[in-house]
Specification:
The chain is mainly α. The chain is 79% helix and 0% strand. It is elongated, with a radius of gyration of 32 Å.
């Protein structure tokens, strides 16, 4: 008798499952189709992104070859074109290289290109800081110390990646603008930083020797 009840229960379960399948199978099939389509779309997206990155890498290498051949105008144009259409990683690199190529023909124009990168919020913070340093380096011989302060003081703080370069340029700018007090301030900061590179430390000591002695009170 128990076996008969078991068979009846099994039949009832099968009937219930069949009703559920008949009612919801279309949704299950649609869900499976969506999953397959999503996976296929993601794989397609990954393939296209990898293809774009490979094409951008090849274009970047060709532009760099033009630079190596001293074809700076052509290299600048190639990097500028790449910056307009390359994936984000190559886009910033291409903009930086385009500015570097422009520096050989027009330092002020190149500095403006670096400045544009430095204020672009879509660019990573360290790339922005590098652009600030590059722009300041191009203007070091002509800009006032006040201008260099405005450009570089934030990059000269203890935790800044490019603090050593920023401090050296601030010291040089102060010296060239006959501000011995400011120059001495930055040279002291350079000397007191235990992580100052040896080469920079030597240059700072040489510049320190050129400053007039501190007046005795």
């Amino acid at each position: 008798m128990s076996e008969l009840f078991d068979e009846v229960d099994e039949e009832v379960r099968r009937e219930q499952l069949k009703k559920l399948w008949d009612k919801y199978s279309i949704y299950f099939i649609a869900l499976m189709v969506l999953i397959v389509a999503a996976v296929g779309g993601w794989r397609g997206y990954q393939y296209l992104e990898a293809k774009k990155a490979a094409e951008a890498g090849a274009a970047f290498d060709k532009a760099a070859e033009l630079s190596d051949q001293n074809k700076h105008a052509e290299a600048e144009a190639a990097f500028t074109e790449l910056a307009a259409k390359a994936p984000s990683g190559y886009r910033t690199l291409a903009r930086l290289r385009a500015a570097a190529e422009a520096a050989s023909r027009d330092p002020k124009a190149a500095a403006k290109m670096y400045d544009d990168i430095a204020v672009d919020r879509s660019v990573d913070g360290e790339w922005q800081d590098l652009a600030k340093i590059r722009a300041a380096g191009l203007l070091l011989d002509t800009a006032s110390y006040a201008d260099m302060q405005q450009r570089l003081e934030a990059s000269a703080t203890p935790n800044s990646t490019f603090r050593h370069s920023a401090r050296e340029m601030l010291a040089l700018s102060a010296w060239r603008n006959n501000d011995a007090t400011a120059a001495r301030k930055w040279l002291d900061v350079i000397a007191e930083d235990g992580e100052t590179p040896p080469g920079l430390r030597s240059r700072a000591e040489a510049l320190q020797a050129l400053l007039p002695p501190v007046a005795k009170s």
